[in-house]
Write a structure and sequence with these properties.
The complex is a heterotrimer of chains A (about 300), B (about 375) and C (about 375). Chain B is an all-alpha fold. Helix content of chain B is about 70%, strand content about 0%. With about 375 residues, chain C is mostly helical. In chain C, β1 and β2 form a beta hairpin. In chain C, α3 crosses α8, α3 packs antiparallel against α10 and α3 crosses α13. The chains are: A alpha/beta (about 300), B mainly alpha (about 375), C mainly alpha (about 375). The interface between A and C is small, with 9 and 5 residues.
Chain lengths: ~300, ~375, ~375
């Protein structure tokens, strides 16, 4: 039953970016290459990642009297890894929630793939290619790993309720087609052994991995990762970083990432936006951000 | 030793995703179906104990089958989609009364009396439509709030069928009797015929339910149940997922209501579908196992057996109980059992069965 | 009725409904919401207009129904108070509150009957019986806390709710087995009526003394509870537990004890409700269904709000009496049976958190 495909995943509806990948960008080699000669590959990528896929302009969000985000603008370019960092309570998760339509901002415009809107709706966000993972794992606890990931395929499944009721002909074929896609992802994430285990019983690290798998099953163009490495040990963080890089390089998926581990953020991301108290205080490459006095103040405190 | 999967290799995903991946399970289910469809009628025909006894068919197997179907419907809504309903009795009533109206004709709109089979199914359809209407609040409210909303359905329809005489064809007593059960010339009358008629319905809809819950739509329901916000952000539309669960659930409950009225009761009044019925169904799915089709059967069987047990055993032991005491004892036993199961085994009998199977696979080794 | 006597109140109703529609504009996020709001505003306009026109036709009669309804609504508030207390303190939506009213009522009336049967004078028998039924409620609280709630600590609300349905069945079965299942009359309060405002309206307005007693008792109870919550040490611990039981536990508040106290207080509230209702209808099983109406009261008022329970009770009481009399003429009697629930459903559709509830912000 288990196939030995190590490297995965040419998704059925492959994105164009995937085909423009350089040939040598495969698997672990990539991680190594990135770690070794970071600067070169970044420039290489800067050439590819020109076009803006999502832009957020002057977005403000408040709950009652509490301002969560005030007047924040930034953009995400196609194919890049974009980190959002900031101290706790800076409004990072709220920002992700705005991007995928869970919160409606009071002001501002969001443009995704050229379409302007004041507010996204969760369904629109998902169906136009935004998927995400959550800060506190939000898996479907009563379902198996396989079912969780199959649930991620919902938008791609067409057959009506009557076909499903009889589970006959087209409905079964469709189910099998999607199962194959999901199985490839399972191989990629190395979670074959927990395929049929209810996710509620899995340890935290594996849950995070299943959640990533569920988000990938949607074949997103923009993947939002909310603290994918929170609470992980070094080894797990390395695994997760490897997955993130492979997803970005091999599938060409654009990634927006919230993370507290600065080492990870600086190594992985192409550009970083820094929030503090709901405002943007810096935006640029990791090196620029690291040198920004406002960022240093925010993280280390200011001497008055 | 018999219950082993050794040597059964799955080479396709479809074999892996079959309803019962294990050959032994398939054989057991097949045998059960053969027994139910052929064995019991034969045994009843030759009056072999205990099947020669009409009481068994009429007062135990028949209500067991019909309430199992209703419990499957309730389980889809509560166990799979996580939308609690205290109004299942009302949806049984809608199925029953609308099937009755279709079965006796509605001259006001020029509709002649329909045959029994379409009447029962149309009763289910009406119930599904009302189910969707009462499911709309579920888009805004959750959990306990929804429970109260479904209570509104229960009390409103109790009243409607009691007070609006059109539904009872202006019968002065408010009690109505089912039309003759004639299916393509076959008059369903004898207990064994009634049993087979219901069995066919229940088996068919049980398979439909099983297919739905293990397919794409079932995954949507469970996703909504387990983490509705995450589900929505992954492109599962709560609107469609929740309302389809309400529709399918109310349809099955409605068909069960029509069968309950037509096949089991024969003549009935609104009291047959009160809030007690709703709670009874709720208990069946909790005790049997939330989120399990098998559990719906187990729960229905158990809830029906307890009163019979309380009736028979003490009098056999020489301490007959009054009917009043029995009904109070029933209350106490059901109530404490619900609490006990919620604490000890929230997944009900179905979970116990799967644990037993797990043990059996490894037997005689502990793990 | 004349055209004018309908047009003016109809207009008022329409204005009120329109106001409701405008005020709720922030809550409309989809087409379904808009359809629902338009439909509800229309129904509200027609209903209010109709009621107003009937009020103009016969103000005395209308006032009498209104006052009677409000006062009987107080009884719903009494039961709803018990719900709110438990929900606030332990997050448990207690379906068993109705069964607790039944248990309290049966314990009271049966022990009272027994004592008077022994020839004990009322002045002694009544306090004794009240003490006895208080003890029974304490026993209930103890058993429920120990055997149902404690093992289910940290479970989700739905599981707890279903466990209280289980507890309801046990209580109903036990109470009837121990105390009997007949109808037992209770005479603690006067049940005759006053006639007020004879000069103003033809025939005056009939007000039931028992209802007034009920209102008075409810008021005293609310004041007492508020004082208990605000000014005692236990009350403060209770509020802490209500906020976050894990945090409360970590600063040394004995959570089992607090829950026992909450259920005991809810039991005593049930006992008070039972004395008034028992006097009105006799203590009998159907009290459970009346108590169930506290659920819609809570939906309307908001689950966590004591004033909400009071106002919700008044709205339900008045609304269902007015609907019963005035709508009943048009579509048949028995509307009281479901009106409260349908009203709650309507409130849920436009304001899920209830009148006094706080808006729920979802997080992920």
């Amino acid at each position: 039953m288990s196939s030995n495909t190590v490297m995965p995943v040419a998704p059925a509806a492959g994105s164009t970016a995937a085909s423009t990948q350089p040939a040598e960008a495969s698997g672990l080699a990539v991680a190594a290459a990135r770690a070794a000669g970071g600067a070169g590959s970044r420039e290489d990528r800067a050439r590819r990642t020109g076009e803006v896929i999502l832009s957020v302009e002057n977005v403000s969000l408040s709950f009652g009297g509490v301002r969560a985000i005030s007047d924040v603008s930034f953009d995400i370019r196609k194919g890049e890894i974009r980190a959002i960092i900031g101290p706790n309570g800076a409004g990072k998760t709220s920002m992700l929630n705005v991007i995928n339509g869970f919160y409606f901002p009071q002001q501002g415009v969001i443009t995704f793939k050229g379409e302007k809107r004041r507010e996204m709706r969760p369904y629109f966000a998902a169906s136009s290619g935004i998927s995400r993972t959550f800060q506190n794992v939000a898996l479907f606890k009563g379902m198996s790993t396989l079912d969780n990931m199959m649930a991620g395929r919902t938008l791609k499944m067409q057959r009506g309720i009557l076909w499903q009721a009889l589970r006959f002909g087209p409905a079964v074929n469709e189910e099998m087609r999607h199962r194959e896609v999901v199985e490839k992802l399972i191989d990629f994430l190395e979670i074959q052994h927990i395929r049929k285990v209810p996710v509620g019983k899995l340890p935290y690290g594996l849950q995070k991995r299943v959640e990533l798998g569920r988000a990938l099953a949607m074949e997103p163009e923009l993947l939002l990762l909310d603290e994918p490495m929170a609470g992980m040990n070094l080894e797990e963080k390395e695994d997760m970083s490897r997955f993130i890089i492979t997803i970005n390089q091999h599938l060409g998926t654009t990634i927006a990432l919230i993370e507290h581990d600065m080492g990870v953020v600086m190594d992985l991301s192409d550009r970083v936006v820094v929030l503090e108290y709901g405002r943007k205080i810096a935006d640029g490459t990791p090196d620029q951000v690291k040198a920004d006095p406002k960022v240093i103040d925010a993280y280390l405190g200011v001497s008055h | 030793m018999l219950y082993r999967e050794t040597g059964q290799f799955k080479t396709t995903y479809s074999a892996d995703m079959a309803m019962l991946p294990l050959r032994q399970d398939r054989i057991a289910l097949g045998a059960l179906l053969v027994f139910a469809f052929v064995g019991i009628p034969l045994l009843a025909h030759f009056a072999v104990w205990p099947f020669g006894n009409e009481y068994l068919l009429r007062a135990i197997l028949l209500p067991f089958l019909i309430l199992s179907l209703a419990a499957i419907g309730v389980n889809i809504l509560i166990g799979y989609c996580g939308q609690i309903s205290l109004g299942s009795g009302a949806f049984m009533a809608i199925g029953a009364y609308m099937a009755y109206k279709f079965g006796t004709g509605m001259p006001e709109i020029g509709l002649p009396a329909l045959p029994v089979l379409p009447s029962i199914l149309l009763g289910g359809v009406c119930s599904a439509i009302v189910g969707v209407l009462f499911g709309i609040p579920s888009l805004r409210i959750k959990g306990l709030y929804l429970a109260v909303a479904t209570l509104a359905a229960q009390f409103f329809f109790d009243w409607l069928f009691l007070r609006v005489k059109w539904f009872t064809n202006y019968a002065p007593s408010g009690s109505v009797s089912a039309p003759e059960l004639n299916v393509f010339g076959w008059v369903v009358d004898e207990p064994i015929e009634r049993y087979l008629f219901c069995l066919a319905f229940v088996v068919f809809f049980a398979f439909v339910a099983k297919n739905l819950v293990r397919g794409a739509i079932g995954r949507q329901w469970m996703a909504i149940r387990d983490m509705d916000i995450a589900a929505e952000l992954m492109g599962i539309r709560p609107f469609f997922a929740k309302l389809s669960a309400f529709a399918v659930s109310s349809f099955m409950v409605g068909v069960a209501g029509a069968l309950w009225a037509f096949v089991y009761l024969g003549a009935w009044e609104p009291l047959a579908f009160s809030i007690d019925r709703s709670l009874q169904l709720l208990f069946m799915v909790i005790i049997g196992g939330l989120g399990s089709i098998l559990g719906s059967f187990l729960g229905a069987g158990f809830i029906l057996m307890v009163p019979i047990f309380l009736n028979v055993v003490p009098s056999e032991l020489g301490v007959p109980l009054s009917t009043e005491t029995i009904s109070h004892l029933e209350f106490i036993i059901f109530g404490s059992l619900i609490c006990f199961l919620l604490i000890k085994e929230p997944h009900g009998f179905a979970r116990l069965v799967s644990l037993a199977k797990e043990k059996l696979r490894l037997w005689p080794f502990p793990y | 009725m004349s055209g004018l006597s309908f047009a003016i109140p109809g207009g008022i109703g329409a204005v009120l409904a329109g106001l409701m529609f405008v005020l709720l504009r922030g809550d409309r996020r989809s087409v379904v919401d808009t359809i629902v709001h338009v439909a509800l505003a229309a129904v509200t306009a027609v209903f209010l207009g109709y009621l107003a026109s009937r009020a103009i036709d016969n103000p005395g009669g209308f006032l009498e129904i209104l006052v009677g309804g409000l006062l009987s609504g107080v009884l719903y508030s009494l039961v709803a108070l018990g719900f709110v207390l438990i929900f606030k303190a332990s997050g448990v939506f207690n379906y068993a509150q109705g069964a607790m009213v039944l248990v309290a009522g049966l314990a009271l009336v049966r022990s009272l009957d027994y004592l008077t049967g022994l020839g004990v004078a009322n002045i002694v028998a009544i306090p004794l019986a009240i003490l006895f039924s208080g003890a029974v409620m304490a026993l209930c609280a103890f058993v429920i806390e120990k055997w149902v709630l404690r093992p289910l600590l940290n479970q989700d609300g739905l599981t707890l709710f279903m466990s209280t349905i289980g507890a309801t069945f046990v209580l109903e079965g036990l109470a009837q087995m121990v105390f009997g299942s007949g109808v037992y009359p209770l005479r603690l309060f006067p049940t005759d009526a006053w006639i007020l405002g004879e000069g103003m309206f033809p025939g005056g307005i009939l007000v039931n003394k028992l209802d007034v007693w009920g209102g008075l008792i409810a008021a005293i109870l609310v004041v007492a509870l508020a004082a208990f919550f605000q000014y005692t040490k236990t009350g403060r611990a209770l509020r802490a537990v209500a906020d976050d039981h894990a945090a409360a536990q970590s600063v040394g508040i004995p959570i089992s004890w607090i829950w026992f106290i909450v259920w005991l207080v809810a039991g005593i509230v049930a006992l008070v409700a039972a004395t008034v209702w028992g006097t009105k209808l006799g203590v009998q099983f159907s009290i459970v269904f009346l108590a169930l109406k506290a659920l819609p009261v809570l939906i309307i008022g908001g689950f966590t709000s004591v004033p909400g329970a009071i106002v919700g009770g008044l709205i339900v009481g008045a609304g269902e009496k007015l609907a019963e009399i005035y709508l009943g003429e048009l579509i048949g009697g028995g509307i009281e049976y479901w009106f409260a629930y349908v009203l709650a459903l309507a409130v849920l559709l436009v304001r899920p958190q209830g009148l006094y509830g706080e808006k729920i912000i979802e997080r992920i």
